[in-house]
Structures are given as C-alpha cells and as structure tokens.
C-alpha cells in the first residue's frame, strides 16, 4: 500500500485561491515599498553558516536549519569524533551551509559584497521565504515569507519616520487595525547600566522581550537565572511598569536615565521620531513600550513591532536600527534601519477577519464554453482579442455538458461566461452571462470588452 503523502510540520500548501489572497498581500506591500523609492533584490535560500552564525544570539543560532555537506559527509570523521555526542561540535564538521533565518543578515552580506555596484543610501526591499527550526504553533511556522524594507548608509531619523509611514499605509490599504510598539535599544542599554548590569544587556533584553508571552514574574525568574542580582532586578521593576502618555514616559525616562549618556541619547532619538510622526500626521497609534526589546543582537537604536488589534496573534511586523551589522563582514561605518512584514501572519489575520477583496487581479474574468469544434474555432479570436487588452480569459478545452462547464466556472469563481451557438455566430456576437445575477446579453466584441472592464 502506498504511503500517504504529507509535508513537514510548520509548512503549508496553498491552493490557487489561497495564492491569489497571498499575492494580494504581496502586491499591496510591494506597491507601498515602491511608492517610497525602494528597489527589489533577492538572495539565495541558503547561506554559508559562517555568514549566519552568531548574528541572532544563542537562541537564534539554535533555530538555524543546517544543510548537510554533499557526498559522504561522514568519511573524514574519526570514530572518536562520531562518538562525541556533541551536536553543535559535530554539526560544524558535517555542515557548511544553512537556510536563511531572516532577510536582514543576508542583506548585510549583499551590501558588503556588492558595495561598489550600489549607491548609498541604498533603499532595498526583498520578499522571500525564510526558515526557522522553531516549534510549530498557531501563527508560528518553520517556513514563512518575510517582506523586508531597509535603508543602509544613512543615520537620519527620517528613515525611521518613512518606515512608520510605510506601516501606516500598508495596513490602511489592507484594512487591518494595528498599533505600532516603539522602543530604543539605547534606552535598554541605559537601563542595564543604571541597575549595575551593563554587561548583561543581552540576557536582560532577551528576557523582557518575552513579557507579553510569559508575564513579569517569569521574566524576573529568567533574569535571575542569568546571575543578575536581586537588587538589580528590584531597580528594574518600576522602569518596566512606567505608565502614561508617550511624552510622559519619555519625561520620566529622562529622570531615571539622568546618569546614562547612552540612555539619554535613546530618549532623544525617540522624541525626534515621535515629533516627526506628529508633524506628518501618522494616523496609526504609536505606543512607547519599554518591554519591547527585539531579542536579536544586531539592533542598536529604534526598534519597532506592530500588533493587530482585532485578532489574537503575535507581532505581524517588526524591525529596527542596526549600526554595526555590516562590520562583521568587514565594512565599518554603515548604519541601517529596516522592518519586516510577516506575510504569513498577515495572511492569517486577513483570513480571520475576512478582509480580502471580492475580486482578484489573478482571477479569470470570462470563460468561453465549448459546444463543438466549429464553436471552439469561432471563440479563439475573441480570446486573443480580450487577452491583448489585459482581460484574463479562458475557454473550456473540449465539448462537454453545459452543467459541467458552468460548474467549472462556479468552482473557479469566474464572474462571466460566454455562450456561443449558431445564432451568436451568424450575428458575429456572443451571449454574455453574468454568473452572479444570471443576466444574459448578446454583445459585440467592443461591447463585451466594455462590460468586462
């Protein structure tokens, strides 16, 4: 008996209708990216592990999918090495490549590798799948698409403003109600500094980034497990519980971080960004959230997350400023800032809220039914003429019962059907049937084009 086919957990197949819905998301996002002057690039699905490792923190490195070397990858290992029972150590000997974890690190590699062929500031967007060896759960997949937009080669906070405007415009077009969560890694560094644990900034940020998932008590337990003193944890509590408007929180932070130069710089940057957003009348709500840390090691300035307000799901967009990313590839002094739209989570949100438009640009607009060879040959020039005018059209490829052909049109949600018989051919016309209303009209070539538009 043949084995029942399946796909790996955390991955999905998509039907034609689902792909039409997904392309609605991709096309909407692409249109907004282009509106702000961003250009598209692509990078390979796999990168050298030397490119990927060490860029996402210890937890991120564990989630990288490694690719076994080609050929007999065990042939050069000794019996002693095979008995190591040390997966990370052994992996380094049998795997040199991995599937990309995100699009930002490959982008940094791209910038360094092609630095002489691009103009700075370089504004790029990239829409491709990424892979993470995560535990599959609702809203979290092992293979998923990211839609990234980044600017490198500019320190200006106008770039942060434009990214927020892009978020505002994308979700306005998709009709999803969202809130933008905003913080700054310099503020977090300042907090770590004033509580006396500056060297533990990574441990602190990784822990508090989980606040909305595990709660304050568990966050404190995780911080304590990293060797951070009870005194430091106590000093951290009122900071994490700051309340009020954004301006009130920033005012309180100026007092709290008075002794931290880097912390005050982060506050100043956020004040500028909030001021620019107010000047440009960004409609989406923006909240200063001090528990937002974005655990990735490479962020150095403003950090963003976007949450959908009408659906229980994780962040659907995130990103931030990274000043040092290209330096690990030998290119110093290049600052960048970017955000990533999680297409699969956006897809899930639109599915739950049923926000897709009724018609899709990919949808066939008209089906010509086929009663015989003579009718089929009559229809072919009509098909060519409609396609030449950008109208999606198809013909049922063989004679069949009317019911079968109409069911085909219904199943594909084709809104119009063209019926051709002796009468229509004698008059040089077709009978156009509206599948939604049932109305039928005898139309000429020009009339049918106008009706379909």
Write structural notes for this entry.
This protein has three domains: 11-177 and 310-359, Bira Bifunctional Protein, Domain 2 (BirA Bifunctional Protein, domain 2, 2-Layer Sandwich), CATH 3.30.930; 186-304, no CATH class; 366-452, Rossmann fold (3-Layer(aba) Sandwich). It is globular, with a radius of gyration of 28 Å. The chain has 18 helices and 16 strands. The strands form three sheets. The protein has an eight-stranded mixed sheet with strand order 1-5-6-11-10-9-7-8. Strands 13-12-14-15-16 form a five-stranded mixed sheet. A three-stranded antiparallel sheet has the order 2-4-3. The protein has 453 residues and is α+β, with helices and mostly antiparallel strands.
Task: List its traits.
BirA Bifunctional Protein, domain 2, 3 domains, five-stranded mixed sheet, 453 residues, Rossmann fold, alpha+beta, 18% strand, 43% helix, eight-stranded mixed sheet
In short:
The chain has helices at 16-35, 49-52, 57-62, 79-82, 87-94, 104-113, 158-174, 185-194, 201-208, 211-225, 230-240, 246-256, 261-279, 343-353, 373-388, 402-411, 422-427, 445-452, and strands spanning 39-40, 46-48, 66-68, 95-99, 122-131, 143-152, 178-184, 285-288, 302-308, 317-322, 336-342, 366-368, 393-395, 416-419, 430-434, 440-443. It is an alpha+beta fold.
Number of domains: 3
Briefly note the structural class of the backbone. Answer: alpha+beta
Q: What is the terminal-to-terminal distance? A: 51 Å
Largest sheet: 8 strands, mixed
CATH domain topology of the largest domain: BirA Bifunctional Protein, domain 2
CATH class of the largest domain: Alpha Beta
- In spatial order, strands of the major sheet run 1-5-6-11-10-9-7-8
CATH superfamily of the largest domain: Bira Bifunctional Protein, Domain 2
| Alpha plus pi helix count | 18
